[in-house]
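In the current project phase, work has continued on tokenised descriptions of protein folds. One protein thus recorded appears below exactly as we store it.

——
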Amino acid sequence: MSVPDWAERVVSDLTDMDRAPHPVDARKVARFTLRLPDAVHFEYGFVDGRGRIRADPENPQRADNPWYPQLSRARGPAYRPHPLHAPDPELATGRTRRLRLPDPEAPRGERRATLYEPAGLRGPAPLLLVHDGTAYLRIARLPAVLEALIAAGRVRPARVAFVDPLSPAARRAEYGFGEAYLRFALRTLLPRLRDEADANATHLLGASLGGLAATRIAWAEPEGVQGLALQSAALLGAPDEREFHRSERSWLLERLERSDAALPWRTYQEVGTLDWLHDVNRRVAPRLAERVAAHRFETRAAGHNWTFWRDGLATALETLLAPDDDGAPR
């Protein structure tokens, strides 16, 4: 690809965008080549002198990335999106309710959640708690994916609760080992949601730092959780070392290696081969598989982005809500 004359840095799935941008100078290097897997979904862009990420002017294909809307994308000849990668939102014909939950540690004394109930569902059913809920609702279209899987007999019906941090700026502090958020989740959020959803099992889902938040809740209440789905989970760092980009430690790996107690979870874990979190997730996977009731681990040629997570969402739901599993605590 060519280097625009205004570009000072290149960012991509290989740099986690703004984590480690690579300097470029069109006067010295006019073009460069990347060798990528045939099945890759790859996102990249250039940074100009004002610090703005801009698309490749030679590539009309844009990434569907809500965090960095100006990115370009490249897809290998063998890349195939999942059939439910972008389902028709009209498939979500169930009922949606908005909930207010008291939280004395929140600035306004409360938090909010959205509870989705699939069409025709009555009586007890599993509860799926989803972090970064607005993104899973609007970008991943999780209710539509769930309804399509239910109609195909590929999952058991479940009620889904979508929750968010207090604000985008608070996300890192809350999901990244935030003790106040963990207290709220255990003391208020889960008890209320289980009651509202008539839950007979509890499953958790999250991507990136949302995956870390889900894991911490599950670890704090292992017997109360039956399933855990982690999409590119941010498993680097520790409560006393919140350096998620630079730390060599892994809070979860340290705990798995210190204890051999069985965990009654059905787990799904995925990470892209181009993701900066690939190595830590690959190290965690066999340790987690040794401890849980059932474990599925997948990698695909992609980075840390919503295209990758949308491609894996249906498989995550099929793993947690498998039709052959009655969802009851083990």
